[in-house]
Every structure is written in C-alpha cells, then in structure tokens.
Amino acid sequence: MSEAYFPVGPGLGMEENFLSLDDILMSQEKLPGRAESALPRLAVLMGQGASSAESVPEGSKLEIPLWLAKGLHDSKRRIISVELPKIYKEAWRTVFSADANVVDLHKMGPYYYGFGSQLLNFENPENPEIAQTILQATGVAVLPVSDSVCSPQTFVARFRRIMDSSQNAYNEDTSALVARLDELERALFQVGQKGLNDFQCWEKGQASQITASSLVQNYGKRKLTEVDG
C-alpha cells in the first residue's frame, strides 16, 4: 500500500527546497532583465523566437523565470542582468510602511516573501532594504542591515491581522481576506484556524491531546540543526 503524501514546506531565505511544490511554482515566477551578451539558441526558451537555432541578441529586454535567471546569472561573465520587480522597489516599500494591510499581495505576487528572498541571489544596491523589509520580518537573517533602512513592517503588520482573523472568524466566510494573501500567509491562516479547531475539540473532550503543528515542529528542527552545526 502506498504511503500518504505529506506536503514539504518551502525553504527559508536564499535557498530553495526542491522537494517543495510551493518552491517549484515560485521558481516559475518571472524577473525583468536584459541580455548583457548574445545568448545562442535560447530564443525559444526566452519566448523570443520560433526556432531552437535562434539566438537572443545582446541588449534584448527579457522576462526570465527565476530558475533560469539564477542559472544564467554570473557576476564575472555578465551574461544577464536582473531588475527588481516593481513591488520590491522603493515606492512599494513606502506603501507597505504606511499600511501593509491594504496591499493585495496575491495579485501582486503569490510568493511575495519567498520570491523576495530569492532576489538576494542577484547583486542589487537595494538588497539590504529588501532583506530588512522581508527576511528579518520573517525571522530569517541573511544580510547585515543597519537601523537606518526601512523597518520590517510588511510581514509583522499583516501577520497580526491574519492570526486575529484566523482566531475570530471561525465558521465565517473568510474568502475575501484569504484571496488577498500570499501563499505563505495563506498557510499561516490555515494553521491558525486548525489550531483553534483542535483546541475547541479538546475543550469538548473530543480529542485526547493537543499536539504542535508540523510548521512549528519543522521550524524547531531547523533551529536545532543550526545550533548543532
């Protein structure tokens, strides 16, 4: 008899988990970029030609899947350059600082936090601000950042609302709220509602014990691994 499938969580920070369906889907998200040199026989892959023999001319503007951009990116050879998607630029970071809850993250990018973490694989002068806004807000320190850069309000502000809603909107229609969340936030919302449901079942004597969620258990294991290393 085949074993049940257990979902694998996404990686943290700049590393992807290639067993995670979320990370596989995230790697298909596209980045704006530019060909810094001619790319032989890649026109079809880049969506710029009809034949596998065609090349991408130097200087061409590109829309590159994340997995391909990471494979082609080489700071020494300058094969391609990558630009920041608009939602990670300063103008949008200002919007998040003003009121992070007004933004429909799923519409702007369903993997906002994970994709933003991956942008740190590319050289960009705004990387410290992106790290401060996204990564430190999720508890993953990847780059050293100063106190003068943008404060980590995006995840923190939205997390409070998500968890409050998951605990106070039980058995109510939450589709409008969930539709605006990125995939990480949706997972947190589901964890919050499951925790509330498990607690209510325990209170009614319908469950023998309360157990920690797999999300918490996996995070604990990662922290222990870091300490042992």
Note the beta-strand portion: 5-15%
**What strand order characterises the main sheet?**
2-1-3
Distance between the termini: 37 Å
**Shape, principal axes of CA atoms:** elongated
How many helical stretches? 10
Rounded mean pLDDT is: 75
Uncertain spans, ≥5 residues at pLDDT below 50? Answer: 135-152
**Series of H and E elements:** HEEHEHHHHHHHH
> C-alpha Rg, in Å?
21 Å
Task: Please describe the biggest sheet, giving its number of strands, its sense, and whether it closes into a barrel.
Answer: 3 strands, antiparallel
The percent of residues in helical segments reads 40-55%
For this structure, what is the CATH class of the domain at 21-36 and 61-136 and 152-207?
A: Mainly Alpha
For the record, the CATH architecture of the domain at 21-36 and 61-136 and 152-207 stands as: Up-down Bundle
Per the CATH scheme, the topology name of the domain at 21-36 and 61-136 and 152-207 is Methane Monooxygenase Hydroxylase, Chain G, domain 1
The total strand number stands at 3
Structural class: mainly alpha
Family: Belongs to the GINS3/PSF3 family.
Keywords: DNA replication, Nucleus
Function: The GINS complex plays an essential role in the initiation of DNA replication.
Pfam families: PSF3_N (PF22466), Sld5 (PF05916)
